[in-house]
Design brief:
The protein is of the alpha+beta class. The chain is built from eight helices and ten strands. It has two domains: about 120 residues, Jelly Rolls, CATH 2.60.120; about 80 residues, Jelly Rolls (Sandwich). About 35% of the residues lie in helices and about 20% in strands. The relative contact order is 0.11.
Length: about 260
């Protein structure tokens, strides 16, 4: 049976807040609390989907290896998020690897309990469906960004999303809220470590962000939002009032030829 600590943590999460004490106790039956050290692998891509989880504390990173062998970061898991929902998708194996970014606490239920869990707790079933729908929408948005946005826009949008999901106010600005490297940003945005380093260095000089080892702090949200906007279209000279009768004539040049 989960400890009183897990019970207290659950009460602070939006996922479980609507449940009565009786419903919460029922939801916790069959759950096992897990404390995970930073850098631990919760499960690997392709491993049997034996459990589903709720993160209570900490932060997790979800990664996939593409058929070409490239590793990408799919998303981050924050407290209150459900993950490991292979059973909800009718899959026998996990589609991605989940690692801890920092020390974390989660609850794990056997995958075999999924149907009874959702039948007994329709609020949680609805939230799980909403979670999967949101992740699908997020995937569509990222595909659109990879197709339509330049690299600077993609990196700016990614940092803004991380701030929205996990940002913590500090004296310097808004901290992303968990350890994150420039390589992590590169894997999320389909670019290279060199490009991300160059952008962050430029933004640091302009006072938009400050960054250090595994840390990014947003100092000027408005400036970063402006970087996500498309560049203005080039000026149409024919529409310019000064050129409505045609472009200005080239200035005449007097050339004197001497012998």
């Amino acid at each position: 049976m989960p400890s009183p600590l897990c019970h207290a943590l659950l009460r602070n999460l939006d996922l479980f807040r609507p449940l009565s004490d009786v419903q919460l106790d029922a939801a916790l039956r069959g759950a096992s609390p897990c404390r995970l050290e930073a850098g631990a692998v919760v499960y690997g891509q392709g491993a049997p989907g034996t459990h589903f989880f709720v993160l209570l504390h900490g932060c997790l990173k979800v990664t996939q290896v593409t058929p070409e062998g490239e590793q990408i970061i799919v998303r981050y898991v924050n407290p209150g998020d459900m993950f490991g929902l292979a059973c909800a998708m009718g899959r026998s194996c996990y589609p991605a690897t989940v690692l801890t970014v920092q020390e974390s606490i989660c609850l794990a239920w056997p995958a075999a309990a999924w149907h009874s869990f959702t039948a007994s707790h329709p609020q949680l079933a609805a939230l799980a469906l909403q979670t999967m729908g949101q992740r699908l929408q997020d995937a569509h948005v990222r595909i659109q960004e990879l197709s339509n946005d330049d690299v600077e826009q993609r990196v700016a949008r990614t940092i803004l999303r991380l701030i929205k999901q996990s940002g913590q106010p500090t004296r310097e600005g808004i901290d992303v809220g968990f350890p994150i490297t420039r390589q992590d940003i590169a894997e999320m945005t389909g670019t290279t470590l060199h490009t991300v380093s160059r952008l962050l260095s430029d933004w640091k000089q302009r006072g938009i962000v400050s960054s250090g080892r595994k840390r990014i702090v947003l100092r000027s949200p408005a400036a970063l939002v402006r970087l996500t906007e498309p560049a203005p279209p080039p000026m149409d000279c024919a529409a310019c009032l000064s050129c409505r009768d045609g472009p200005p004539a080239a200035p005449s040049v007097n050339v004197t030829i001497t012998h």
